[in-house]
Design goal:
Elements lengths: L2 H5 L3 H14 L12 H8 L3 H13 L3 E4 L3 E4 L14
Antiparallel strand pairs: 1-2
Helix pairs in contact: 2-4, 3-4
């Protein structure tokens, strides 16, 4: 963990809020991949474990889906199957 993550164990929650906002605003559209854990770690200055926990939280909420070997993708809204899964 980074020093900032140790002093604030809710860092993953703040990151999840940012990502949730990006999804709601359409910056991360259905079918789009999220930034990688490494990219999030570098961009926001959090430990990789913190970033992974934020992504798992959003997966548990049904906003993301994880595809092994590819990463996390924004889930399509119910009934929007055209945007489901990774784009080819």
């Amino acid at each position: 963990m980074s020093i900032s993550d140790e002093s604030d164990p809710r860092a993953y929650m703040r990151l999840a809020v940012r990502l949730r906002r990006d999804i709601a605003d359409g910056k991360l559209a259905p079918g789009m991949p999220t930034p990688s854990i490494t990219t999030l770690s570098q961009q926001y200055g959090h430990a990789r474990q913190t970033c992974a926990k934020a992504l798992r939280m959003l997966e548990d909420e049904g906003l993301l889906t994880r595809i092994p070997g590819l990463g996390y993708y924004v889930k399509a809204a119910p009934g929007d199957q055209a945007a489901a899964g990774p784009r080819s």
